Every structure is written in structure tokens, then in C-alpha cells.
Amino acid sequence: MIKAIFFDIDGTLLSHTTRSVSVSTKEALRLLKQKGIYTFVASGRHISEMKDLPINDLDFTGYITLNGQYCFNNDGMIYDLVIDQNDINNIIHSIDKYPFPCIFVEDKLMYINYHNDVVQLVQDAISSPLPDINDLHRGYHHKIYQVIPYDIDKDKEKEILKLMPHCKATRWHDLAIDIIPKNGGKQNGIQQVLNYYGIKQNETMAFGDGDNDIDMLGFVEIAIAMGNATDNVKEVSDYITDDVDNDGIYHALSKFKII
Q: 173 Cβ partners below 8 Å, 6+ apart?
């Protein structure tokens, strides 16, 4: 019996074609709540970003944010995991020498050192405004949960990870990556949430579409790939549903007789 379901945001709950959550997805979430099934957001996004998205009025049990590094519910934080301070020091030093746009993510803030055309392009692709500009040197004195370099090809990604040996990266756009602790990830955040609520791993289900969902989908009992998912996501999933613009979430929940 499924007791908890985890949903990615971009391309899963939220369509960037319509820039909205479909009527069928909202109805599916209502029916899940009616049946007493816990629903969680599981996203790479920061809470400040989610407040500006059309998911803000949806009623979830809790939130796994920053790819699992910061988990909370209405009562407060459930779990957090920060990036090793030496790794942060190294990337700050590198950006000082060879600048590129990069977001640092704290628990309450996320900020970037500067904007350029690439940052604008990527933010438009995920229906998000440009992040606030701030001094990355804050990272010397504040906990950093996630680092998001922009305008980064695969060779540059390898160079950055050499500077951050306690971290791993997930590419969510051709021009942007998420960097988090090696022992982090959505699956780790999910495990912490399951421990908190006393739910077993075999009582879980998840929906995703991007490569940062792969670990999550490999962890849960029933893994659903959206029809618009990457090939990598589809390969690790138990079922491929319709895409986000064609009622994919509702159809999969109906097929598995969850609703």
C-alpha cells in the first residue's frame, strides 16, 4: 500500500509550456489527501523560488528542497545537510580568479554574483525570475546547501568537481548544474522524511522527469517517469506515463489504482 508520494516540480507538477499546474494534477492531489496519502514536493528548487510558482497554493505534507539538502514541513525543519566548508572556500577562490555566474544557496537566501545572457536564458526556461545579486564571499561565514554554476560545459564541470571533492553534480540544463554533498540527493532527503513519519520504503511512489530525479526514482517502490522525461529517467522507471501537458500524473495514479 502506497502511503507517501514524492513529486518533482519542473516538468512534473509544473508545465513550462502553460506555466501552470493542470486541473487534473490538482484534482489528483485533492484525491490523495482525501485518501490520507502523504504528498511531498521533491525538488532542486529553493523555498523562495516556490513561493513565486503556481504550486504555492497546493497543499503538501512537506517539502524536500535543494535536491534533498533541506527538508521541512509546516512544523519546521526535518533535516538538513550542508556542503563541506573547504569545498566552498575552493570554489569562491576559483570564481575570484576566473569569474562565471554562480548561485549560492543558503537556508533562507539564494543569490548570484552577476547576471548575463546565459543566466537569463536558463531562468526563462524554468519560469523563474533572475536571482538576487549578492557577494559570494558570504559563503565563508554562512552555511551553503547547494551551488549552481551557469554557463558550464562538461569539461568545466569536471574542473569544478576537482575543487569540490566532497560534492557531486547533477545537470538539469545544458548550461547549468546543481552541486550538492556526495552523500546528499533527493533519495537521502526522502529517507530522512520517511524516518520522521514512520513510513517504509516499500510504501512510496515518486514522479520525475529530469536527471536529478534518477536517484529518487531508483529509491522508491514505484517510480513513474513523465512522458517528457529524459531517456535516462525513463530507463530507471517502472512506468512511463503521459507528459506533463497531457495529465500524466492523474493517468499514472489511476493506472496504479492509487486514486
A: 122, 125, 126
Please name the helix (run of DSSP H) or strand (run of DSSP E) that holds residue 10, with its range, or none: none
Q: For residue range 69-128, list pLDDT tens digits in order.
A: 999 999 999 999 999 999 999 999 999 999 999 999 999 899 999 999 999 999 998 888
- Confirm whether pTM is higher than 0.90: no
The C-alpha cell at 241 is 506515463
Contact present, 10 and 17 (Cβ < 8 Å): no
| Beta-strand pair 132-133/62-65 | unpaired
What are the pLDDT digits (tens) for 126-150?
Answer: 888 899 999 999 999 999 999 999 9
Using CA atoms, how far apart are residues 217 and 7, in angstroms rounded to an integer?
Answer: 10
- Strand, coil or helix: 38: strand
Task: State the burial class of residue 118 (Cβ atoms within 10 Å of its Cβ: 0-12, 13-18, 19+).
Answer: middle
Helix residue spans in the chain (DSSP H): 23-34, 47-50, 85-97, 117-125, 154-163, 186-197, 214-219, 231-236, 248-255
Burial letters for 163-185: b for 16+ Cβ neighbours within 10 Å, e otherwise?
A: bbeebbbbbbbebbbbbbbeebb
Residue-wise pLDDT for 182-204, tens only, equals 999 999 999 999 999 999 999 99
CA distance 49 to 112: 14
